[in-house]
Amino acid sequence: MISLTNLVKTYHTRDGQVTAVDSIDLTIDEGEIFGIIGYSGAGKSTLIRLLNMLETPSSGNVMIAGKNMNHLSNKQLRKARQEIGMIFQHFNLLWSRTVKENIAFPLEIKGVPKEEREKRVNELIGLVGLEGRGESYPSQLSGGQKQRVGIARALANNPKVLLCDEATSALDPKTTDSILELLVDINKKLGLTIVLITHEMHVIRKICHRVAVMEEGRIVEQGNVLEVFKKPKELMTKEFVKQVTEPEETEEALKQLFKDNGIGHVLQLTFVGGEAKKPLINTIIKSYDVTVNILQGKISQTQNGPYGSLFISVEGDKDEIDRVQDFIRGQQVEVEVIHGE
Amino acid sequence: MNNLLLQQTWFFPNVNWSTMWEATLETIYMASISLVLTFVFGILLGLLLFLTDTGNLWENKGIQTVTAAFVNIFRSVPFIILIVLLIPFTTFIVGSFLGPSAALPALIIGASPFYARLVEIALREIDKGVIEAAKSMGASNRQIIFKVLLPESLPALVSGITVTAIALVSFTAMAGVIGAGGLGDLAYRHGFQRSREDVTLMATIIVLVIVFIIQFIGDRLTNKLDKR
Ligand SMILES: Nc1ncnc2c1ncn2[C@@H]1O[C@H](COP(=O)(O)OP(=O)(O)OP(=O)(O)O)[C@@H](O)[C@H]1O
Ligand SMILES: [Mg+2]
């Protein structure tokens, strides 16, 4: 659906050249929710803005739905943009228009007749759950409601692709969840391809099928969300994965435990998909001569299945503990020794 | 009725009410015609200033510099000097440099750059993200101007034209001094020069009333339009 080849964007500033997007190659399939994660300044916004040519590439190609976006005339580009919806961190609604008028805006731009517009607007209001708020002005809505208007507006012209630039970053966790659910719902109902950028891993975890990690304008790692959670390769990715799997206090709490000696090896097990359901600990205790203590555990749901992490301390003979580790690996579960003499 | 007239005459012995009324109409005539044209030219100039600026739709350094220079020059020349400078131009266009119509070119040329700056400021206040959202939906430049820029800045455009209207009323009074007619003319020639303070006072009161009415209407309209 979307393919980027050797895409580069360089800005010329007073402080010299800034390469915001650095030779990116990327393919996004039809109907998938693709997440791009990175810290501030990684070039995420620049990348997503290159997709609908809000920024013109310095070099490289952007293909969307079979169209080479950088070779379109102005008029063709405007037409192509009508098939690519976009939502924004700060919603970017027209405050002088009511909810209905805001949603009708892209339809007016396309030249849809008035009656049809009204019908479509009413459908969209239902789709995003804003019944009864059609005549309100944006200033009378909460952040979550504003983003719903943004989504309805972006969907008005039945786009093939929806671009989301930090769509939930200005919202509280609960509202974030409801907006994310809405996006998954739309993805399923309409088969829409969604590209979303964020700096929050839990957004990726909740709704994305695949993820790319961005650092300094490059994609350093990408893959199936579950795979990336299970085996993050790059340091940057590991940090992001930790956002979800490990509450911040875990590390500190464990350090505290290490101080109070007496604790043997500490292992972090990472389960993915079906394995999360196997009675692993039970088997270890029964079959090996070790004592196992569960320190902390967590299971989260992703779009490709459940994902869990478990911290355990294992006491016993060194060789026996090695055998335990081998056994665990044999079960397709990732093991990392967090602490051990 | 007779009594009332007597009373007024007692307070304002030298005021000729029909002359006063005529002068008021002349002031309103000058101010309103020039206001309409100032509104049009000011918006055009303001849009030009805004759109040709770096990063905006019609980015063009050359046009931006020329327009900005034009606006700054005409905004900086004191109005009374502007009228005098424009006498040849006025005579050419209107055929005379006396009378209310003759004041119009100077009023418009004096007020449009002033309003253009207010328009530019109003347009700058619009969130860049909203313009970008419109672009992302495939809006043309024309659609962005008429569906985003002007409607989104409307309250500021209205409060700006209110300020400009009040400035125009005071400009008409100045124009009066060189023979444009209206309340300024009356206050200066019939009041000040003939030491009839009551005439000056009455003319001033009427000017103030006009200003208050403009301000009142402008504020009401701005509040009604502002949905932020
Ligand atoms: N118009 C511009 N001119 C010059 N440099 C720019 C411009 N836009 C972005 N940059 C630079 O490009 C780099 C990437 O910026 P970008 O906004 O894409 O980052 P981001 O990943 O979206 O960050 P954030 O999470 O803070 O939104 C930054 O170093 C930024 O300074
Ligand atoms: Mg950004």
Summary?
Chain A: Pfam families: ABC_tran, NIL. The complex is a heterodimer of chains A (341) and B (228). Chain A contains twelve helices and 14 strands.
What does this structure look like?
Chain A: One of its GO terms (molecular function) is ATP binding. Chain A: It comes from Evansella tamaricis. Chain A: It holds the Pfam family ABC_tran. The complex is a heterodimer of chains A (341) and B (228). Chain A has helices at residues 44-51, 74-81, 99-110, 114-127, 143-155, 173-190, 201-207, 225-230, 235-245, 249-259, 280-287, 318-330, and strands at 2-13, 16-28, 33-38, 59-64, 67-68, 84-88, 161-165, 193-198, 210-215, 218-224, 265-272, 290-302, 305-316, 334-339. By secondary structure, chain A is of the alpha/beta class. Chain A has two domains: 2-236, 3-Layer(aba) Sandwich (Rossmann fold), CATH 3.40.50.300; 246-339, Alpha-Beta Plaits. In chain A, the strands form three sheets. Chain A has a six-stranded mixed β-sheet with strand order 6-7-8-3-9-10, with helices on both faces. In chain A, a hairpin with a 2-residue loop joins strand 9 (210-215) and strand 10. Helix content of chain B is 82%, strand content 0%. The termini of chain B are far apart. Chain B is elongated. Chain B has ten helices and no strands. Chain A binds chain B through residues 52, 54, 77-82, 84, 86, 88, 90, 92-97, 105-106, 108-110, 137-139, 153, 157, 163, and chain B through 127, 129-130, 132-140, 143, 147-148, 151-152, 154, 225, 227-228. Magnesium ion binds next to helix 1 of chain A.
